[in-house]
Design goal:
By secondary structure, the chain is α+β, with helices and mostly antiparallel strands. It has one domain. It is built from six helices and nine strands. Strands 1-2-3-9-8-7-4-6-5 form a nine-stranded antiparallel sheet. Helix 1 packs across helix 3. The protein is globular.
């Protein structure tokens, strides 16, 4: 378990197995580097969230998983596979969801309304085998439409999740108690930025959850994800 007040750096060598929608199995051996911090309100090596208001006595912990010298999509698949495996082993009472939102307004056309969020992703080749669990809402503004959706994430859909995280910057991975009603988050919407989504971060921490987003550009040597959440959850994931 992560000691209080300490930044932990963990080097892991592991085998990540990912099954694509075509049933092709790809085995990858790589190093995942995890840097964590128990309190993101003070200087740390993960992310500084000192400006986010929390209930008195509550803290936000964080962890950054990094993969070196891999293409962006493969880096995300490796890290997400590790995360799902860890959640299943250490936190069986929690589930993992992909949350996707439109970063730009969509045109108010009949086909856009018909496809919605998940249909539009499918039309771009981002396919999910468990799409029957997907939910979405639409916000109609004078200038256009914005869709927000959630999908329970399983190993078979890591390829689609990685593509969605790369193509839609307004996206997160949520780790939450399995009985969480994700529609509450869909109604409020989000921006994909921890600071602008401070109210959601505070709610997620209070629910003993975690929000995760990708970092690193296509030409960066290091790519991965950064997660912020309750200290208990972060420590359990790092066990």
């Amino acid at each position: 378990m992560m000691p209080a007040g300490m930044i932990m750096v963990l080097e892991m060598t592991r085998i990540a197995v990912h099954i694509l929608t075509t049933k092709l199995v790809i085995t990858m051996t790589t190093n995942i580097r995890a840097v964590s911090a128990p309190d993101l309100s003070v200087d740390n090596d993960v992310i500084n969230l000192g400006g986010i208001d929390l209930e008195e006595g509550r803290k936000i912990a964080g962890v950054c998983w990094t993969v070196r010298k891999q293409v962006a999509e493969k880096s995300l698949i490796i890290v997400l596979d590790h995360l799902l495996e860890t959640i299943r082993r250490n936190l069986p009472e929690h589930g993992v969801w992909l949350l996707v939102g439109n970063s730009t307004l969509q045109k108010k056309t009949r086909i856009v309304k018909y496809r919605g969020l998940w249909g539009a992703l499918a039309a771009r080749g981002i396919i999910f085998n468990h799409a029957n669990s997907a939910k979405e809402v639409v916000r109609e503004l004078p200038e256009g439409l914005r869709f927000f959706g959630s999908l329970k994430l399983f190993e078979v859909d890591l390829d689609g999740a990685a593509k969605a995280l790369l193509e839609e910057v307004c996206s997160y991975i949520f780790v939450m108690p399995s009985d969480t009603n994700m529609e509450d988050f869909l109604e409020s919407g989000w921006t994909g930025d921890f600071f602008e989504d401070a109210e959601i971060v505070s709610r997620v921490v209070s629910y003993d959850g975690m929000m995760i987003k990708r970092y690193g550009q296509f030409d960066d040597e290091e790519k991965g994800v950064v997660g912020v959440g309750s200290p208990r959850l972060v420590s359990m994931i790092l066990m």
